[in-house]
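Issue: ligand-bound run for adenosine-5'-diphosphate - logging full I/O for the record.

Environment: standard queue, default settings, no custom constraints.

Inputs:
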Amino acid sequence: MIVTVVSFKGGVGKTTTAIHLAAALQGYGETLLIDADPNGSALTWASRGELPFRVVDQWQARAISTPQGHVVIDTQARPTTDDLALLAATCDLLVLPTTPDMLALDALALMVQHLAGLPVAPYRILLTMVPPYPSRAGAEVRAMLTTTGLPLFEVGIRRYAAFQKAALAGTAVYDVKDPKAEAGWQDYTALGNEVLAAMPEIEESH
Ligand SMILES: Nc1ncnc2c1ncn2[C@@H]1O[C@H](COP(=O)(O)OP(=O)(O)O)[C@@H](O)[C@H]1O
Ligand SMILES: [Mg+2]
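Outputs:
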């Protein structure tokens, strides 16, 4: 399946999500990460260390076929309307990461409005960088989003410094020496499972 990670806002965890979702899906089948962000953040991440899947840019991706496997696409912030239309029409599922703060939620609302006017793949919102317990910020934003009826992943990704260490080391978070590395990885394996569980629904809706 092809999963595309998009948002209008930068710094909401798109690249971190693309890397770790690809790592989680790799556990189930050959996975390719396509870095469609001209900044090449995922490629830079990969170049610094070891990841269990291939990362290529969008030009290289044309030459590679993964008929049985999964593809995750990382994108740039502020996609043009044309890019967004193309990205949204050519995948099976859109993942919309947002941090639980007002500016990110405003950008999310804009994205949802844009998608409403397009013939798009199904999407789900992913709460990222959620302040861990005992903060209530994540739960409050989740409750608020739930009242809107918008589709939301059950798992939220907690905010842990281990993710920054992983970016620096060029690895997935599970390879980082940090007391929260395992908890961070658990969040993304749960996301991988939700994405895979969404597959049959997605195929029915096509
Ligand atoms: N769950 C997380 N916990 C802590 N820091 C995070 C988390 N996810 C991302 N970050 C950090 O936030 C910053 C932006 O993340 P990034 O994935 O590059 O976002 P985007 O691709 O949307 O710009 C980076 O410094 C990254 O290490
Ligand atoms: Mg990025």
